[in-house]
Design a protein that fits this description.
Strand content: 15-25%
CATH superfamily: DsrEFH-like
Number of strands: 5
Radius of gyration: 12 Å
Structural class: alpha/beta
Largest sheet: 5 strands, parallel
Shape: globular
CATH topology: Hypothetical Protein Ychn, Chain: A
């Protein structure tokens, strides 16, 4: 098994890059938790398809933005919970 990796996506302009990196890491057999922070994702068909692949491959998606939780099925996470979870990861990749 690969490493446990947290992908932090705070820059809305790089949200797709973070999603694709998460997917690529899953394909390389790493355990991925993707965190979209402080913005609602811009949901396109391509973005939605790739999120579906992350779900199918056992990755996890979290957000501190209620709209992402309600509209796009992210798991809710607070910043305090995020801080605690990051300690569980071997690698953190910021976007």
């Amino acid at each position: 098994m690969g490493k446990t990796v947290a992908v932090l996506i705070r820059d809305k302009e790089r949200q797709y890059e973070g999603l694709r990196s998460s997917l690529g890491l899953l394909l390389e057999d790493h355990k991925i938790d993707m965190f979209v922070l402080d913005h609602e994702v811009e949901m396109t068909e391509e973005y939605s398809d790739n999120m579906g692949f992350i779900d199918e491959m056992g990755g996890h998606r979290f957000s501190n933005v209620p709209a992402n939780v309600e509209k796009h099925d992210f798991q809710r996470i607070s910043l305090d919970e995020l801080a605690a979870r990051l300690r569980e990861h071997e690698v953190v990749i910021p976007f």
